[in-house]
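Because showing beats explaining, we let one protein speak, sequence and backbone structure tokens together, and leave readers to judge.
___
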Amino acid sequence: MKTSIKSLFLCFFVPLCGHLSLASADPSEVDRFAKVDEAVAAALKRGDCPGAVVLVVHKDEVVFRKAYGQRAVRPEEQIITADTVFDLASLTKPIATATSVMLLIEQGKLRVDEKVAKYWPAFAGNGKEDVTVAHLLIHTSGLTADNPAADYEDGRAKALERIAALTLEAPAGSRFRYSDVGFIVLGELVERVGGVPVDRFAKEHVFDPLKMVGTTFKPSDELKKRIAPTGKRAGKMILGDVHDPRAFLMGGVAGHAGLFGPADDLARYCRMLLRGGDLDGARVLKPETVKLFTEPREVPAGGKPGKKDEPARKLFRSYGWDVDTAFTAQRGGRFPRGEGFGHTGFTGTSIWVDPRSKTAVIVLTNRVHPDDKGNVVRLRKEIGTAVAEAVGKQ
């Protein structure tokens, strides 16, 4: 009976080479995270994703770092490595765009309670004059989740003109609805107020100071050698171009998607937040800005009642992060509800940060490879639970 390359890798490579901890090679550390191994192995067996990289930060150290499965299955199989670069999808929102917004607020160039139209006058049209920066950050602007992809086919300038002409679906502040459009608007505000596009602003003020050397929009040909492919576009596998169709039509740089990066860089970013805004002598944000950025804020649930006309449970976001909504599977079942923050990405990426235990859980997959059919919601939840149990034992 023939044995596939994938089966050989899962049986032999992962146990021998997969755990690449930067903090400890102690066998007790490996055993402590055994449930993470089990969760990923089960997800790979189900076909939920072709591979994954899981990294855990705890008390300012990387205590777990491991690659599983394959980076690519088509057009040829490629083994995943812990330094694989992923299309981070909506992790772009907090890491690049919202962090840049927080920096502009810290610099006094932007106010969180200010009307968007102050910075982009054309945006006020069709009833959007009361939308504030805060509304965009916590997804209560009333904007649609996504306007048609056809609105982007004539280039970036025309796409922004069409966004400025949109009509709200609900009054500003009246409901929570996750909106890519809202973060495209925030990306435009970064450029208008910061003077450079969001990719350049984030690189100069966030990625370079933190030495996030593999994190970028529009990856170079050299970096593409480490990138995990995603789905297909025009019949060809996407490798190194953003998977999101609207970000792609905007030239690969947008406030809602377009960022690529490896787990190690995200670990540095999370350590910065957990340390109050600085890392290795580089201060990215002031402690009070980190607090403003990450503290929970209740958002209106949108009027979905519970059983017997009971009100819907309370929902919480922070300025760029998810805290406690229907999008919070990666928190798992053990980290305390309503205290941590995180985000997910459509391609199969996620982060959860638990300030109480000083823990960050980074799960990177390309679940959309090769056919856009994978699903890692269960995997995220199981890893979040397993890590919370593991760090609780220390």
In short: Residues 1-25 have pLDDT under 50 and may be disordered. The chain is about 35% helix and 15% strand. The first helix runs from residue 5 to 18. The two ends are 44 Å apart (CA to CA).
